[in-house]
Amino acid sequence: MWKIGHASWLYCILGLSLAACSPPTSRAPGQAGTTERIGGTVNVLATWGGDEQASFLAMVQPFEERTGIRVSYEGTRDLNAVLTTRVQGGNPPDVAGLPGPGQVAELARGGKLVDLSGVLDMNAMREQYADDWLKLGQADGKQVGIFIKSAVKGLIWYNPKEFSRAGYAPPKSWDELMTLTRRMADTGTTPWCIGFEAGAASGWAGTDWLEDIVLRQSGPTVYEQWHQGKIKWSSPEITRAWETWGQIVADPRMVFGGRQAMLATNFGESGNPMFSSPPRCYLHHQASFITSFFVEGNPGLKPVEDFNFFSFPDMDQRYVGSIEGAGDLFGMFRDTPQARALMQYLVTPEAQSIWVKRGGAISPNKRISLDDYPD
Predict the structure, then answer these.
(1) 65: exposed, middle or buried (C-beta count within 10 Å: 0-12, 13-18, 19+)?
(2) 55: how many CB neighbours lie within 10 A of its CB?
(3) Residues 348-361: tens digit of each pLDDT
(4) What count of Cα atoms within 13 Å lies in the side-chain half-sphere of residue 130?
């Protein structure tokens, strides 16, 4: 999953992705390639497991029925290592999620990724995708990747019923948030539920925290320079972010279960204590996709009524409205009829609306109707 931190990404993701001006049309990128009976198998490697894997398989079911192609899916949280090993061993998957911009550029320059401009109808892609989404999948001017799902990062989730019962209200600034969490801790209930465990990928939920703080505390320019390696981890800006985060994670009163629980609890399950009675925490920091994990772990929960969110509070008035976005980027490693057909299908409104309707996903395709979102 790629992550992008800019104030402008609020508009890229929520404005361009969600504000559909028209319903899906019959013209979709590469649609002709997905209506033929082809047969065979296409191998897919990605990070999804559990409910996310189930949503992807539901997404490709109509494709399998229509084309006769079987989608053989392999999920791993250690995507970078598994993909690198298979590519180096000459046994890449047909289609795979891509780990990040650095690795994508490396794979493209090594001739490992197929140029998708010869696979997809790029005129239709430009009609249906914001230009920013296309550029983020390019390397050396070639379209080597395409986003099939996106998310908004930096959201703080809470249980509205328990919030109301305790007399709490969503804070509007970082200072208000810290005042609220100290108030919660004083009642004997830890404010936060946090979980970093994700197999070989453990820890990414912690980097999300730091990225949110750096973006809102020091601004988009510093954020960009940091991920480009131009600002060191020991710089004053990044040191300050660690110290700010430490007010939460280094205080045993602030996190349910303390440090050991943070390290041992799976990211997808870590928000569940919010829904116990009485709640064992009140707040959970995670991206928009976490809603599917909430419902999976607590059947019967209803959005807005049982869980809602507020944005990560502003820290500096110069960077008001900053937000971080993320997306699942796919690339093609083997140029086969089956892989072409799948890539052509995955970018369509038809395909992406399936995951959208199941929850936990935002589509980068502008033709998805707002009516397809469950809440």
Answers:
(1) exposed
(2) 21
(3) 999 999 999 998 89
(4) 21
